[in-house]
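2 proteins. here.
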Amino acid sequence: NTSTLQGLKLPIFALWIGLYRHIAAPLGLFWLVTQVLSQGLMGIWWSLFGISWSAAIIAAAVARRRIRQFETASAARNAGESS
């Protein structure tokens, strides 16, 4: 999905999803599962699972939305040229 967005000239999204996956989500989620929920190492593994899947779902949703916007803009441009 991030490669698709890079192809659509939206490379900054890869940076944001990387920051989410590697910094923001782990800081909050690891603290939550180890300190608040007392899950220990198993909580860390489940957190990694959740972070990876949530990042993939977010990336897929953004990619689909941007592709639809790109297709709509392209169709409007083509309709304008044929008029």
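next one coming up
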Amino acid sequence: MIDIFWPNDRGINLKQIPNLYEHLKKFRLILEGRNENANGLDKAIAKGLYYFGSVRRKLDFSLPKIVSPQRSKTNTFGYNETEWFASADVYYITDSSLKQNLKFILGLLNSKLYYLWLSRRGKVKGPMLELYQKPLTEIPIYECSESIQNKISSLVDKIVNLKREEKNTQKMESEIDNIVYRLYDLSYDEVKVVDPEFRLTEMEYSRIILE
């Protein structure tokens, strides 16, 4: 994994990585031919500083993280806690403070209500959601009690474990959807707009207790 990115590594001493530098020199024409203009990288390339990967902040790839593809037909977010690397078509959501409940956030992001937000307030290209830095940074995350966060993260754990066994997780995914509807205080009619195939009766929906 070559981890040299602009602007964090702009002061790098190339004498410390002579073998890597010699390797990158083979691809100088290709790297200089990139159409880059973000955060001054185009000016760096013009000065001969062509060896940076791209514009990106430093990231500890070993941290727990939510990952998503650049494009997807639905809100597709995954989770892992290992050293996991990917190219520019994958986005990472991390918490260096380790104070956020990422599994709770994952449950929200994969819910039907959040799909509606992404498809209406986010960016789409044909039938595909474009899960770029924007709108990812603009997605509202509901602030709720720790007990509710733990309830959703517990369901996420069960879903992850069942998916490893290639078992059906629809029941638990629906439970998360229902909790999210109640978090945002959606009426029964509003839920039917979000999910026309919603199976609960109005009475059953009203009986969902968050805490």
